[in-house]
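lol so apparently i was supposed to do this last week
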Amino acid sequence: MAQLPILVAPDPRLKLKAKPVDGVDDALRRLMDDMLETMYVAPGIGLAAPQVGVSRRVLVIDIAKEGEPKAPLCMANPELVSVSDDDAVYEEGCLSVPEHYAEVVRPARVTVRFLDRDGITRELDADGLLATVVQHEMDHLDGILFIDHLSNLKRNMILRKLSKSRKAATDPAL
Ligand code: GNR
Ligand code: NI
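anyway here it is w/ GNR bound
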């Protein structure tokens, strides 16, 4: 397995709409495994392929807490089959928006259909944190970040800080 570099906003590659995969082959399984390792090391509870520069509809999730057995979920070509009418609010963060957190409103429950690591079509009913993370990761596949759910003022404030800290890292004179 290998760790992959995670892109940080504002990076134009995070804004692209990712393409579906044709199916799950060994190369795609390797990508899923590398994404899981990258996510566990970060650490994070989800990761979408566009965050590692791969514009394909692939994501991984593990919301198991520290000390609990790992519970990795791999999804290719995920689609929302249904969403609840009622909403839930969670404080979200993103590995591509480091050190910024904000409350985001999303449907409280979703049903998602996807290809698993073996290429088998599955459906998953998610609520609570899992429902939020599934939607957060699926947003990445459409070039949407959690900050796109905030007011323009909050989003621009965060993006300005991120480009400043990138410039400072590239050129300490700034
Ligand atoms: O690690 C992550 N934590 C998190 C917390 C609340 C809502 C969503 C997330 S996903 C995030 C990892 C990430 O950036 N996935 O794209
Ligand atoms: Ni994210």
